[in-house]
Amino acid sequence: MPGKGGYWLIGQVRALPPERGGSTPAAALSAHTGPEHRASLLRAEKENKVSSIDEIKRTTPPRTTNGTQWEVQLCAIPSREWLELFKLAGEASPTAGPQRVVFDRDALSFKSDEERVEQWIQSIDKWIASTNARYARQVESASRERAVREDAETKERERITRLNDRFKNL
Q1: Long-range contacts of residues 121-127, Cβ cutoff 8 Å, at least 24 apart
Q2: Per the domain annotation, does 131 fall within a domain?
Q3: What's residue 85's pLDDT?
Q4: pTM
Q5: Total domains, the chain
Q6: Does a structural domain hold residue 24?
Q7: Which of 13, 21, 25, 145 has the fewest beta carbons under 10 Å from its own?
Q8: What is the distance, to the nearest Å, from the Cα of residue 128 to the centroid of all Cα atoms in its chain?
Q9: For 105-145, how does the pLDDT look when each residue is reduced to its tens digit (9 = 90+)?
Q10: Is 106 inside a domain boundary?
């Protein structure tokens, strides 16, 4: 949809009366996952057009096929920005560190002997919680900045309109 997006489409569907499809279950997906795009998602959520996954969470216990490579499933595919924050999350120990976690779509894996798996999972859960909190702050900050910028742009447009109205008869 050149010039339009999934949020726009969902808004159009939601605006229809129920008998014309306005209550049809629908989802909008976006490849735009950065903080600068999150503001449009938050606006769409407030208008009840879409919902989103707010946090990344571990959904399975660790599983292994060889006793040294472990994997856990996540509730969603983390954004690139979230992954960058994760790599900076928390303290590393001699055996577990966020930089040693490998992400593959909605799963993460790590190497560990069975004696240290519990320590890894505890650390991973802490790192995920820390990353979720930092990401939420980053998104909120980007949203505030965008709101301030949009407010300033609106005021400037209003000022220009007033100027044009003031001098339209000259």
Answers
A1: 121/58, 121/61, 121/62, 121/72, 123/90, 123/93, 123/96, 123/98, 124/58, 124/72, 124/96, 125/58, 126/89, 126/90, 127/86, 127/89, 127/90, 127/98, 127/101
A2: yes
A3: 94
A4: 0.61
A5: 1
A6: no
A7: 25
A8: 13
A9: 999 999 999 999 999 999 999 999 999 999 999 888 888 89
A10: yes
